[in-house]
Amino acid sequence: LAERLEDAWKKLRGQDKISQANIQDALKEVRRALLAADVNLQVVKAFVKEVETKATGAEVISGVRPDQQFIKIVHDELVDVMGETNAPLAEADNPPTIILMAGLQGTGKTTATAKLALFLQKQKRSCLMVATDVYRPAAIDQLITLGKQIKVPVFEMGSDANPVEIARQGVAQATEQGIDTVIVDTAGRLQIDADMMGELAQIKKAVQPHDTLLVVDAMTGQEAANLTRTFHEEIGITGAILTKMDGDSRGGAALSVRSISGKPIKFVGVGEKVEALQPFYPDRIASRILGMGDVLTLVEKAQEEIDMADAAQMQAKILEARFDFNDFLKQMRLLKNMGSLGGVLKLIPGMNKLSGADLEKGEVELKRTEAMINSMTKQERENPDLLAKSPPRRRRVANGSGRLERDVSELVTKFTRMRGMMKQMGQGGMPGMGGGMPG
Ligand code: GDP
Ligand code: MG
User: Where is the stretch described as Disordered (predicted)?
Assistant: First the structure.
């Protein structure tokens, strides 16, 4: 399958444009990959449609192979849909925080209860685990055994008690003892059934949990979507735990759970041991769903090339004096992420000689400049001459950005002068610079 995906990318590779026509094959393969990863069909359809729109509308970046650009769009969309990394557990303002575990039988609720307790304990948060599964003979013992192993107390009332009552009293005990977090383990059924849902709803109503976590076995496949929908509609979940990700499942359930409930996957279970709990990393699962171990590398490479192409384009604009306020703003925002103004200007040929007090006026100056550019119209940004010629335009920009007309004048003059200088340096051909330029 990964090979077919490769083939589809390869076909795209020869193209110089991403178009509706030439991505159809690639889209088909994405669809196939998602279905093979057990993502629910409806979810797949919506996803592929979204990717098609984004890919078709995407500006083709010169210097970046269309297949790379496409794979990045697919990957980014997957990551986007799957949401936050490491969404935290709820923390009540007034402890105890109450976490309710929900899910079908055998998905790993009891194991996950202990895993969470251990995780919280490592953060110095005290826990109480509450055993409400009174149906399976060994269920209470299972939790007690796990509790001993991780040294976390278990609240239980035997198997004759009422689960709602157990939950209520468990929480009461935690409150009394000043325990930080109560995790209520519940009984599951093999299939969704009205009794189980009814009981869960009653427990939820009785203890008012801060987090209701749906535990989903990653091997569940297509059914994960229905399961999530039912639990979310009937109980209301606030997050999910995806278990058994140490198996060979591709993790498509993650996409289904997230896109159907809109709630984050908070943790991933990766083994039977109590330590086998990991935060959820959407980018890792995205690669796994696409079924290519090296997708991430590909995506990184695409990003690099996109950055390079962007830089090359910017440089060409500078040399041809097509550099406008939009480009300037873009560069400024980059600077903000990167550090100093001087540092980036040094990347422009010849600018290393110009760095210094004149160009580096600090954060305040940057902010003012950005505010002024933000107050310009699209045309003004593209054509700074409009501002140079029109005092009313300058006054409007000044008003909009809380500066004086004089400041706007100065910005435009400086900008025009800088652009002229850049152009001259470009044409003058700085000695020894020619060979080192990308593109
Ligand atoms: P519950 O019925 O939902 O409470 O499920 P359990 O916690 O009893 O787990 C059912 C089985 O799945 C047990 O054998 C667990 O050891 C196993 N299990 C739970 N989580 C994981 C996991 O992340 N990976 C693997 N490989 N097995 C798990
Ligand atoms: Mg259990």
Answer: 377-405
